[in-house]
Amino acid sequence: MERPLLTTAEVAAALGLTHDGIKSAIKRGTLEVVHINPRLNMVTPAAMETYRRDHLGQGSWGRRRDPGKPETKAAAYARAYRERKKAKTVVVRHEAIPGDGVASGESNSSAE
């Protein structure tokens, strides 16, 4: 026996999404619903699991990229550029500037 229908709010809570995100998925047609009346949409547990499996956690690139298609020359160049840029990133530390008064304990007050 199938579990009862779920509201869109219950589906949003179960999937860790917002209610607006679930409504958008329904409008796009990626989440199947049972229309009870014009204002009430219910989701079957099977439809929720199908949406979780097919759409969650992939990001937009995971859905667009065809795994059988070889990487283009431009895409390979862009990936290599991002990797080189990431490797060059250096953490900048605050170093004392001579005469700024912070490192040597000098005060900048003129009331002496």
Number of strands: 3
Taking pLDDT < 50 over at least 5 consecutive residues as the criterion, the unreliable ranges are none
Helix content: 40-55%
| Mean pLDDT reading | 78
Q: What is CATH's topology name of the domain at 6-62?
A: Multidrug-efflux Transporter Regulator, Chain: A, Domain 2
Give the ordered list of helices and strands: EHHEEHHH
Largest sheet: 3 strands, antiparallel
CATH architecture term of the domain at 6-62: Orthogonal Bundle
Structural class, judged by helices and strands? mainly alpha
Please report the number of helical segments: 5
- Silhouette: elongated
Report the sheet-strand fraction.
5-15%
Instruction: Give the N-terminus to C-terminus distance in angstroms.
Output: 87 Å
Radius of gyration: 27 Å
What labels describe this entry?
5 helices, 3 strands, single chain, three-stranded antiparallel β-sheet, elongated, Multidrug-efflux Transporter Regulator, Chain: A, Domain 2, 112 residues, 46% helix, mainly alpha
Could you explain the architecture of this structure?
The chain has a domain at 6-62: Orthogonal Bundle (Multidrug-efflux Transporter Regulator, Chain: A, Domain 2), CATH 1.10.1660. The protein contains five helices and three strands, in the order βααββααα. The chain has helices spanning 8-15, 19-28, 45-55, 59-64, 73-88, and strands spanning 6-7, 34-37, 40-43. A three-stranded antiparallel beta sheet has the order 1-3-2. Strand 2 (34-37) and strand 3 (40-43) form a beta hairpin. Helix 1 crosses helix 2 (19-28). The mean pLDDT is 78.
